[in-house]
Design goal:
16% strand; alpha+beta; 2 strands; single chain
Length: 58
Amino acid sequence: PEKGKANKAIIALLAKALRLRKSQITLAAGETSPHKRFWIADETSDSLREKLQRLELS
C-alpha cells in the first residue's frame, strides 16, 4: 500500500465516469479493504441514478 494512492485513483475514476468533481467524492469506509463505500456530496439520488444508467448504456 502506498498511503492511499489506489483510493485516490478510484476517486479520480469515479469522478471522471460520473462527471463529478473529485472533491465531491469521499471514501466513507474500506480504506484498506477491497470493499469500499463512497460518499458523494451535492448530488440527488435521482441525478446519480441517471448518471449510473448512462454508464450502463455506454
